[in-house]
Amino acid sequence: MHPTVELRAKQSLTLTPRLQQSVRLLQLSSMEFAQELRQALDTNPFLEFDDGQSAEETDTQDEAGLDAAAGEDPATSAEFGETASALANDAITDTASHDLAPDGQDVPAEVIADALADTDERDGAAAGDFPADPYAQRSTRHDGEDNDPTEWIHAKATLRDHLHEALRMCAMPDRDAIAAQLIIEALDDDGYLRQSLDELAKLVTLDPPMTEDDLHVALTLVQRLDAPGLAARSLSECLSLQLQALPSDTEGRDIALQIVNHHLDRMARRELAELQRQLGCPADQIRIACALVRKLDPRPGDAFGRDENNYIVPDVIVRSIKNRWVVQINPAVQPRTRIHRMYAEMFAQCGATSRSPLAQQLQEARWLIRNAQQRFTTIQRVAECIVAHQKAFFEYGEIALKPMVLRDVAEELGLHESTVSRATGNKYMATPRGIFEFKHFFPRELSTESGGTCSSAAVRALLKEMIDAEDVASPLSDVTLAKLLADQGVIVARRTVAKYRRLMKVPPAEMRRQLQAS
After folding, report:
1. Keywords of this protein's UniProt record, alphabetized (predicted)?
2. Which of 479, 346, 236, 66 is nearest to 244 (CA)?
3. 188: closest CA among 148, 147, 235?
4. Do 334 and 263 meet the contact criterion of CB atoms below 8 Å apart?
């Protein structure tokens, strides 16, 4: 066999760069999409924030500069009047026709003209408008200064704020105050001190150096500043501090102190007989002491304000208008951006080749605007299909949620199932019943005794109703719950009931009985 060279013709499907970007943008969450847009605005000179000015104001401010830069009559500026709604209409149909050519090929000359046509002056309320800041709208005072609405938001006082405020009320030497402040700053959000005093002593430079004994004195002071249990180094110490703060005549206090200091693990395992043997106390006193311990707060820092990480921003909003459920894209997640008209015109006049890096950036800017609009269009179509299928849920709640799969939406909208999966991943819907992930509306199907079907979400809703209505003295076991569901025509196994119960974070029947007894 000798090496030979031969030519073969074959066909293959590949994703163009623009289609790859479109797919990637679709699967991003609202937060990730906002970050992607900010990065593009920082790196692409042909993209700029749309400040929300009306078309008349923008034309009045920029007309002279644009005409001078372009060397054209003002009447020619009409070619830049293509609206964002027109972009939305042809965003899907001409996706492939304007893709960037591979390396080594010229970018078509009409790319520049199309990109310039995308630099429309919008009215500010069109469907294609993208706000500059996805999560805040800036207003202006009459004196011309920017007014940040977050300046008027009431901020919760955190645990450290409470302790620093209480520390200022105590008279002490500066050295002790520094040690106490160091302890406060080292506390976790739940109120525990998890760093050793030896490590903290090395963080501050004083003359003479701060010792572990100095910090131990400061720790004792901080533990007495506010709510008992703060600045504890273990769960046992936290509960002990709270018990010590109770009146000395509190029933079961002394036995409870012995339990939390030496036998906390036995109490957790409910070894009451062993506790009775170790402490030499009657069973009634052991139960009273255990009940007292259970009333204590194992995380005292949670009672104070904490920084809330509310990162879920709904992508769509569902409202009932005239007995119709209407789906609207959340304006807060629509970034407002546009192509910089002046830079685009200057580039068109400079005579640069269509293969230059600037031509590539201009094409990428145009892609981003079109793909962003296509992303929101797809999300809205999927959301409208979900609302149409699950209309009963919005009217009656979880018990009316119907089984549905991604294939149902894909077939109805004429999309691929993977596209629907990307459009529903990490997307959220704000409804009158709360904020739900799109995936919440795709419960799996369960069969019924009559031959019909119901959703797993409806079964969980039935289980919750049964557990809420049960006799607290005699909770329903998983076997009993399965039988009650069978009486209503829903056939599920006991292990399925147990799985749904765990998903609802409901303890087993025996534990519910013990919790009620305690």
Report:
1. DNA-binding, DNA-directed RNA polymerase, Nucleotidyltransferase, Sigma factor, Transcription, Transcription regulation, Transferase
2. 236
3. 235
4. no
User: Residue 168 has what DSSP assignment?
Assistant: H
Q: What is the pLDDT of residues 368-416, one digit of tens each?
A: 999 999 999 999 999 999 999 999 889 888 878 888 889 999 999 999 9
Locate the domains of the chain by residue range: 17-136+338-369, 159-231, 234-306, 316-333+374-440, 445-517
Token output for 16: 């163009």
Is the per-residue pLDDT at 75 higher than 60?
Answer: no
**Domain 159-231: top CATH class:** mainly alpha
Residues forming a β-bridge with 324: 321
Residues 87, 81: Cα–Cα separation, whole Å:
11
Give the model's pLDDT for residue 107.
43
Q: What is the 3-state secondary structure (H, E, C) of 226-282?
A: CCCCCCECCHHHHHHHHHHCCCCCCCCHHHHHHHHHHCHHHHHCCCHHHHHHHHCCC
Of 243-247, 413-417, 498-502, the least confident: 498-502
Give the DSSP letter string of 308-342.
-------SEEEEEETTEEEEEE-GGG---EEE-HH
Backbone angles phi, psi at 471, to 5 degrees: -75, 120
Contacts of 254 (CB under 8 A, 6+ apart): none
Kindly indicate whether the domain formed by 316-333+374-440 is annotated with CATH number 1.10.10: yes
Over residues 86-99, mean pLDDT: 37
Among 248-257, 269-278, 300-309, 504-513, the minimum mean pLDDT is found in 300-309
DSSP bridge pairs for 446? 454
Answer for the pair 257, 244: CB distance below 8 angstroms, yes or no.
yes
CA distance linking residue 141 with residue 514, whole number of Å: 61
pTM beyond 0.85, yes or no = no
Amino acid (1-letter code) at residue 459? V
Helix or strand run (H / E) with residue 6: none
DSSP string, 76-112: GGGGG---HHHHHHHTTTTTTTTPPPPTTSPPPTHHH
Tell me the C-alpha to C-alpha distance, in Å, between residue 374 and each of 370, 377, 418: 6, 5, 16
Q: Judge contact between 334 and 380, C-beta under 8 A.
A: no
